[in-house]
Amino acid sequence: MMNRRGNLKSLAVAAAIATGTLTYVTFAQAADTIKVGVLHSLSGTMAISESVLKDTVLMTIDEINANGGVLGKKLEPVVVDPASNWPLFAEKAKQLIDQDKVAVVFGCWTSVSRKSVLPVFEEKNSLLFYPVQYEGEELSKNVFYTGAAPNQQAIPAVEYLMSKDGGSAKRFVLLGTDYVYPRTTNKILRAFLKSKGIPESDIMEEYTPFGHSDYQTIISKVKAFASEGKKTAVISTINGDSNVPFYKELGNAGLKASDVPVVAFSVGEEELRGVDTKPLVGHLAAWNYFMSIKNTPNTAFKNKWATYAKAKGIAGHKDKPLTNDPMEATYIGLNMWAQAVAKAGTTDTDKVIAAMAGQTFQAPGGFMSTMDKANHHLHKPVFIGEVKADGQFNVVWKTKGPVVADPWSDYIAENKGKKNVPMMK
Hints:
This protein is of the alpha/beta class. Helices cover 37% and strands 16% of the residues.
């Protein structure tokens, strides 16, 4: 009987592959597993950043299962590919919740993808864990934000650029991909810069579409803007595979960090993999984790990932395993969710939400990560790193400890009086 079942499964998979209908394969039933949805782009312009987060979820699930699973059941991943297509994210979210009956979803990178799925999770009262820094200006009962809010990344980075240690910048180029995260973040940063006495004439703002590859004209504009006498810095919210041609053009143009430093919010170790980083030494990134951080939890995390990547033959990582900030946020979020389910004794959404309040987990970044009891955000430290010749980052500045998230930025006038607590439905 077991051989017959195995043969039937093999035939079903073969037929799906032959007809091109195989999106993901899952055989275990809901009765004996807890299904976990994975909603990350495995193709399209965002695959460069998101694919590795899918693998991080799978690694963490394997680790949890090896330790006995949750509530006496194994976790079963259900992987879909929304293909960097924002409406498709919503369709795939519905599929995961309605058809696959997942208990939780880990996914999205861009804010436009998160905005696309948000009504789905709220309508169906399901849970999304979102692992990437974002623009704030949002709180939902059904989302746990394990990436940074603006006050945990963007604001500290610009404060650093304005400081003596950061080069005392007086002019700023706000350069981003044309969608909600860069535009909203730059709205906040404009208000912040204005509060610091920076005039409009000393702020340049430029946007490019997803997948943009020709940065020669924009880099020329940046060089011209920087030549007008005041120390200039670039704040980059470019996302996805456009980062590769941007940094290549930065190197080609000889725009050195000592002349015009660039600080990026969406570029980490993974995005620099395909770039010659020698001309980029000294340029900056602001994150809440870097692979180069030295401590026991991070060594363990990196070793786990290296072992897993090699065993699974993950492209690029089996020979050069890299970890980054959204991977750490994914790892923390999945472990916290598992702890909350165990505490609640159920996967019921409302009971897990209640159990998530105040959850803690030892983060690879070296601090005890805490889920805020009210606002569904992690308390996170902030690190600013300089690009090294090997594509890693040297931490040049950090906060003294974790920073409490402020999703509704104080620099946006209309936010006055807004509470940092999600609306319960």
